[in-house]
Amino acid sequence: MEVKNVGQAIYDLAGKLFPICRSITGNGFRQSLEMIREVVPEIQVFEVPSGTQVFDWTVPKEWNINGGWIKNKRGETIVDFKDCNLHVLGYSVPIHRMVSREELLEHVYTQPDQPDWIPYVTSYYKERWGFCMSERQKQTLNDDEYEVCIDSTLKEGSLTYGELILSGETEDEIFFSTYLCHPSMANNELSGPCVQTALIKYLQSLPSHRYTYRFVFIPETIGSITYLSRNLDMMQRHVKAGFVLSCVGDDRTYSYVSTKYENTLTDRVLENVLKFHYPNYIRYTFMKRASDERQYGSAGVDLPVCAFCRSKYHEYPEYHTSADNMDLISPKGLQGAYEVMVKVINALENNYYYQMTCKCEPQLGKRGLYPTVSQKGTYDAARVMQHFIAYADGKNDLIGISNILNIPIDELIPIKDKLMAHQLLSVK
């Protein structure tokens, strides 16, 4: 993906994935992951059998669906899964029979306060059948009897997830997690996996990187629990910062859900990048968590993982409805989220404690780092370097120096590089 076109490339990938009906297990998830692997073939695919114990949870049966509809007595189709895959309750058991209007209404889900939108509703851990429709559609159900059909299967199978580890110069890890388990919703579902795919391509384009990067594509909640049950010890030893990418495709804002105690490298670097480049961002406490950061920050796990969003899940009106479509996200919005994470990666890669190698202020002029003509206005750029030198005393990492000087990290990196090139600066 070329940098100038990365937002469009992310958007195009989301468009290809949008029609697929995904869930926490099943062929929709596999098909989506395979489409992502067409971009990043190095992603490894894992299958975990139904019934596997993962901490306090059990991997559920696998669900697949071919279609579903409601017809009136005249054979007219009222709702059809083919028109919108949110029309069938997620994980619905199969059914095909005539039902009374009263029985049908017991199995119809709407969002009355958003009467024109179809809600996204699931029943993963209790078997039931059901349909979802707009409240206005529901008000048209006036016949006394309807034919209902849900062509689905719920049986022993497996849970699928994808993983890619990009080895770095050290075993210290930066962790990225995103979920791929919702049907046709663009911001809530597809923005995270598609931006993450672009970040993998970015890292693969670098000649080297300090950190090892761990990427996972999982079904939400049960996927993170399953992944942790297999990798927790390794992650607790090596993960230094982590990010759940969710709802990163719209143009409205930036936001993040902090780690439990708001004091990790993850919090420091993301807050630093956002405050300089997108100062109107919204910070939510860990008590507002609702995605996989719940599991990564849970007691006994305690990984330094936050959630990064544009409009946070639960906080925008289209969330978990049919209105979360391709019009809600944009190449610009996706590009913006990608650029935030690139800045985060670059900040982390350069975030050492720095120590000047000479005592007192070095003579910068003889090294071409300071103006040789003294005139008002010629010192501004050099002044920033002098400030950097003053705080490069081994007590501050790059994030700390950035915060003290109130200058973005990406403006300090070239200064750091110049000082190191002249052997005036070392990593403590």
Shape: elongated
Rounded to the nearest angstrom, the radius of gyration is: 25 Å
The share of residues in helices is 25-40%
Q: How far is the N terminus from the C terminus? A: 36 Å
Q: How many strands in all?
A: 19
Q: What composes the largest sheet?
A: 8 strands, mixed
Percentage of residues in strands: 15-25%
The number of helices is: 12
Mean pLDDT, nearest integer? 96
Largest beta sheet: strand ordering: 1-10-12-11-13-16-14-15
Q: What low-confidence regions span 5 or more consecutive residues with pLDDT below 50?
A: none
Helical/strand content category: alpha/beta
Concise summary:
This protein has 428 residues and is of the alpha/beta class. The chain has helices spanning 6-17, 27-39, 101-105, 135-138, 186-205, 222-238, 265-277, 293-296, 331-349, 380-391, 398-405, 409-421, and strands spanning 44-49, 53-54, 57-58, 62-72, 77-80, 95-100, 108-109, 131-132, 145-155, 158-166, 173-179, 212-218, 239-245, 255-257, 282-284, 305-309, 353-356, 393-397, 425-427.
